[in-house]
Design goal:
Helix content: 25-40%
Shape: elongated
Structural class: alpha+beta
Number of helices: 21
Oligomer: single chain
Strand content: 15-25%
Distance between the termini: 131 Å
Largest sheet: 8 strands, mixed
Number of strands: 27
Length: 807
C-alpha cells in the first residue's frame, strides 16, 4: 500500500514528536537545569546542601561604607524551596548576634617571613594584607587569591531581602551537585584528545567515563547510563598527581559505587570535582573486635615486639583499599554523633616524601565530627564526616576551617584520598557525644570543642595577623588542636560540675546534680569529668600546664580582661605537651584513653584510594625516629619515663612500697644472717654527700633506665597487660642475673656477695617493687628513689660495704 503525501507528513510529524519525547526522557536529568529544580524533580543529582554559596571578599571601601565589619558577600548557589528566587543572587553574609565567633578579629600585616614563604610557593591571604579588623568570615573568603571558596551554611536567618546571618561556622564544600554512580570505564565514543600528562605511562586514559546511576526505587545500580567527565588534574609542586582516573573502574573501594560531586557545563556534561567511595561510610564494618587484648593490639605501634594487628599494619600492601574495623560497636541510630580523630601518613615513591633513616613520617592531625544520617539516594543509614582543620598555609591552597569529607579528602585537586594513607577514628562515647540539659542550662561537649577549633582555624587563616601560620615544636596542627581540647575540658569540668562559661549559673547545675544523684545524665557527667581529668593529664604529662594554654583557656572563658590569644615562640614549650607533638602518638594515645573508658570506636582507613597511580605508595605515620624501630622505642620510653612526674598518690604508693620492702628485707636478712647492723657514717659530710650522688647515678638511675624504662612498656604505650607482664618478668630475670654476671666481669669485688642466694633474693624483691611502682606511675623517679634508698641503707647501715670489702 502506498502512502499519500499528507499521510507521510503526519507520520513524519508523529515520529519527530516521539523522538523528542524519547530524547528528553533519557536526558532530562542531564540537561543543564537549576539546582533547586534538580531537588524538586529528584533525578540523578541532588543539591549539595540546603543553603550553599560562593564567598566573595568585599573591598575595604564597601566595608567602610556599610558602617559594619566582619561581613562578606555570598553568591547563592543553593537555597531552600521557599527562597528559590535567591539562587544566583549576591547577598551580604554576617554573624548572628548570638554567635561568639564574630569576636575573632585581628589586623593583618604580612611579615618578611610571610613574604618569603609566599615566594616559595605557599598560598597566603594576599588580599587581606594591610587590612584592619579582619573577622573570621573575611579570613575565609580571602584565604585564596580568587573568590573560589564554596561553603554550606547552617543556622541561617534571612534578614530582609538582601542579608543572611549564621550562628555557626560555614562548611567548606566541593561541587553544587552530587550523585551516586557505578563506574564502568572510559567512553569509547568520545574522541576528544587525551590528557598530555598523568600518573603512570603514556598514553593517559580518557577523561570521559561511563557511569550508571543508582536507582532509589530498585535499590541498585540500574538507573540511567551517562557519560561524565572526571578531569585529570595537574601535578602539584612536588610533581605528584593529586588524583588519577587510571583504572578507576577497577578500584576495590568502588564495589558499592561512588559519590560524585561537581556541576554541569553549558553543554550539560557533568564534570566531577570530588569523589567518595560509598563503602567507606556504610554502617557495615569488615571486622569487629570486642575483647580487651584485641582492642589494645589494634592500637599497638607496628614496631612493637608483640603488636601485629594494628590499624597501620601493612600500609604499603593495602594500597588502593579501604578498611573498616570496630572496637566495641555502639548502638547507632539516626542522629548518633561521634568525635573524629583524623591522621594521615606520607607518600612514598617517585617524587614522594620518603624520609631518611633518621627521619620521622609526621603526618597530620585533626578533630572533627561524624553523624549518622539517612542517605538521600539509598535511604540507608551511614556516616557523614566533617573535619575541623587546623591547617597551616601551604602550596595546595587547603584552607583551615570546617570541611566536609569530600572537600578535604575527595577533592580531585586538593584532597588526600588518592595520595596519602588516612586513619579516621570515630569515637562514640555518650558522656562526650551526647548533650546535657541541667534544668535549662544546656551543655554540648562536641559543640564546645568545635567552637574552640573554629577560633583556632580563624587564627591560622590570618597567621595571628602575620599572614603566615607555620609549624613549630610548640605550635602545629596537633598541638593547637589539642590545646582546643584542653580549653574545652577546662570550660566544661573545671571546679567540679561548673563550666567556666556558666560560672554565674553553676549553683543551678550543682543543685540539679544534687537533686538527681541517680539520674543517667548525672552518671554521664561524672564519667565526663573522669575522662577530662585523664585527658588533661595526658595533654600535660609533666604536670605543668603551658602558660599560653592557661591564658587562652581563661580568655575564651571570659574571665581574662585582655581578650587576646597567647602563642609561645619558645620551642622548649612544646616539650611541656610532648605527647601531642606528633600526630600518630596523639591519635593513638587519645584513642586509647577513650577505649579504656568503654567508648565504641570505628576505624575508617583509606590507603591511596581511587584510580591507580603506580608512581607512589603509602607510608604510615610514625613516632619519633620511626624509621628505626629500636631507636624510636628507646627514645619514646626514655623520654616518657623521665618526663612523667609522680602525682601525690604516686608518692604515697612509692612510700608504702618502700616501707613494705624495708620490713620484709630486714626480717629476711636478719633471719638468714645476711644483714647485720654496721654503721659506716664515719666519713666527712662532703664524702657522704659525694657517696649519695654516686649511688644515685650508679646503680639507681642507670639500672632503672636499663631494666625498667627500656625493657618495660610505658603506660602510655598501647600494649596489652599480657605483654607488660611478660616484659616485666624478662626485665626482672635480667636484673637478677646482671649482678652475678657483673661480678664475673666488670666488678670482681662483687664476688661472692653478688652470687649469694640471699643477696639475689633481696635483689629480686627490690626488682619487683621497682617494676610495680614504675608500671603503676610511668615515672622513673619513684623506682630510682626506692632503689637509691634501699642500696644506701644496705651499704651504710646493714653491712653492705663490709660484705663488699670482705669480698
Amino acid at each position: 500500500m502506498r502512502l499519500r503525501g499528507w499521510q507521510l507528513g503526519w507520520l513524519w510529524g508523529i515520529g519527530i514528536c516521539l523522538g523528542w519525547l524519547f530524547h528528553y526522557s533519557t536526558i532530562a536529568f542531564s540537561a543543564p537545569v537549576g539546582v533547586s529544580e534538580v531537588k524538586v524533580v529528584g533525578g540523578n543529582y541532588r543539591g549539595n546542601g540546603e543553603w550553599m554559596g560562593r564567598l566573595i571578599l568585599p573591598s575595604q571601601m564597601e566595608i567602610a561604607k556599610s558602617g559594619n565589619e566582619g561581613w562578606v558577600w555570598v553568591e547563592i548557589g543553593q537555597a531552600p524551596s521557599a527562597q528559590r528566587q535567591l539562587v544566583g543572587k549576591i547577598l551580604r553574609l554576617s554573624w548572628s548576634p548570638k554567635s561568639v565567633i564574630r569576636s575573632v578579629i585581628t589586623d593583618v600585616k604580612f611579615t618578611s617571613q610571610t613574604i618569603a614563604s609566599q615566594g616559595g610557593g605557599n598560598i597566603h591571604p594576599q588580599r587581606l594584607d594591610g587590612r584592619s579588623r579582619v573577622g573570621a568570615l573575611q579570613s575565609l573568603a580571602g584565604a585564596r587569591p580568587i573568590d573560589d571558596v564554596w561553603v554550606k551554611l547552617a543556622g541561617v536567618e534571612l534578614v530582609g531581602s538582601e542579608d543572611l546571618t549564621i550562628d555557626r561556622e560555614p562548611i567548606q564544600v566541593t561541587g553544587k551537585l552530587r550523585g551516586l554512580v557505578q563506574i564502568f570505564g572510559t567512553d569509547p565514543t568520545r574522541t576528544e584528545s587525551l590528557p598530555m600528562a598523568c600518573a603512570g605511562a603514556l598514553p593517559c586514559p580518557s577523561e570521559y567515563i561511563r557511569v550508571r546511576h543508582y536507582n532509589s526505587a530498585s535499590h541498585g545500580f540500574d538507573g540511567q547510563i551517562e557519560t561524565i567527565r572526571i578531569p585529570q588534574v595537574a601535578a602539584n609542586k612536588s610533581g605528584i598527581f593529586p588524583s588519577t582516573i587510571r583504572d578507576l573502574a577497577l578500584s576495590p573501594a568502588g564495589t558499592q559505587g561512588w559519590y560524585i560531586y561537581g556541576d554541569k557545563d553549558p553543554q550539560g556534561l557533568f564534570t566531577v570535582e570530588a569523589i567518595a567511595p560509598r563503602s567507606l561510610f556504610t554502617l557495615s564494618p569488615e571486622r569487629e573486635i570486642i575483647d580487651g587484648n584485641g582492642k589494645l593490639d589494634y592500637f599497638v605501634d607496628r614496631w612493637s615486639a608483640f603488636g601485629n594487628r594494628q590499624h597501620w599494619q601493612d600500609t604499603a600492601a593495602n594500597k588502593g583499599k579501604i578498611s573498616k574495623v570496630v572496637l566495641d560497636r555502639s548502638h547507632l541510630k539516626l542522629g548518633t554523633k561521634g568525635l573524629v580523630i583524623h591522621s594521615f601518613g606520607g607518600i612514598g615513591g617517585k617524587n614522594g616524601d620518603i624520609p631518611g633513616v633518621w627521619e620521622t613520617v609526621t603526618g597530620h592531625f585533626a578533630y572533627g565530627m561524624a553523624t549518622v544520617i539517612e542517605d538521600e539516594f539509598t535511604h540507608e543509614l551511614q556516616w557523614s564526616i566533617e573535619y575541623n582543620q587546623i591547617y597551616t598555609h601551604n602550596p595546595d591552597g587547603i584552607v583551615a576551617g570546617k570541611q566536609d569529607w569530600a572537600t578535604y579528602m575527595g577533592n580531585l585537586q586538593r584532597g588526600w584520598l588518592a595520595t596519602r594513607p588516612v586513619a579516621d577514628m570515630l569515637i562514640i562515647y555518650p558522656p562526650v557525644t551526647e548533650d546535657y540539659d541541667f534544668g535549662g542550662i544546656k551543655l554540648s561537649p562536641l559543640t564546645e570543642l568545635q567552637q574552640q577549633l573554629h577560633i583556632f582555624a580563624a587564627r591560622y587563616r590570618t597567621g595571628d595577623g602575620t599572614g603566615s601560620a607555620s609549624v613549630t615544636p610548640a605550635t602545629s596542627c596537633v598541638q593547637d588542636a589539642n590545646q582546643a581540647l584542653y580549653i574545652t575540658i577546662a570550660q566544661l569540668t573545671v571546679g567540679g560540675a561548673s563550666p567556666l562559661e556558666n560560672r554565674s549559673r553553676s549553683p543551678q547545675i550543682q543543685a540539679w546534680l544534687a537533686a538527681h544523684p541517680q539520674h543517667p545524665q548525672t552518671r554521664r557527667f561524672e564519667q565526663l569529668k573522669a575522662l577530662g581529668a585523664e585527658l588533661k593529664a595526658s595533654l600535660a604529662p609533666l604536670g605543668v600546664i603551658r602558660s599560653d594554654w592557661q591564658k587562652n583557656a581563661a580568655t575564651l572563658a571570659g574571665i581574662d580582661g585582655a581578650g587576646e590569644f597567647t602563642t609561645s615562640s619558645n620551642p622548649l614549650t612544646g616539650l611541656m605537651s610532648w605527647r601531642t607533638m606528633l600526630p600518630r602518638g596523639a591519635q593513638d594515645g587519645i584513642g586509647k584513653i577513650f577505649s579504656s573508658h568503654g567508648a565504641g570506636i570505628w576505624f575508617l582507613n583509606t590507603f591511596q584510594v581511587g584510580g591507580w597511580n603506580p608512581d607512589i605508595y603509602p607510608l604510615a605515620p610514625t613516632i619519633l625516629f620511626g624509621q628505626i624501630p629500636i631507636v624510636s622505642t628507646i627514645v619514646l620510653r626514655l623520654w616518657a619515663g623521665i618526663s612523667t612526674l609522680p602525682t601525690i598518690s604516686g608518692w604515697l604508693w612509692g612510700l608504702g612500697l618502700l616501707i613494705g620492702y624495708g620490713i620484709i628485707a630486714c626480717v629476711f636478712g636478719v633471719w638468714s644472717g645476711f644483714l647485720t647492723i654496721d654503721y659506716r657514717l664515719d666519713k666527712s659530710k662532703w664524702q657522704n654527700l659525694l657517696s649519695l650522688g654516686h649511688l644515685f647515678l650508679l646503680p639507681a638511675l642507670v639500672e632503672e633506665i636499663l631494666f625498667r624504662v627500656l625493657l618495660i612498656p610505658h603506660p602510655i604505650e598501647t600494649v596489652t597487660s599480657t605483654d607488660t607482664w611478660l616484659w616485666s618478668i624478662i626485665s626482672l630475670f635480667l636484673f637478677i642475673m646482671y649482678h652475678p654476671l657483673n661480678a664475673l666481669t666488670l666488678y670482681p669485688q662483687g664476688k661472692p656477695t653478688f652470687m649469694d642466694w640471699r643477696f639475689l633474693t633481696l635483689a629480686g624483691l627490690l626488682g619487683i617493687v621497682c617494676t610495680s611502682i614504675y608500671s603503676m606511675t610511668g615515672s622513673i623517679w619513684l623506682s630510682v628513689m626506692i632503689h637509691w634508698v634501699a642500696v644506701w641503707c644496705w651499704l651504710k647501715l646493714f653491712g653492705g660495704e663490709k660484705c663488699l670489702d670482705r669480698s
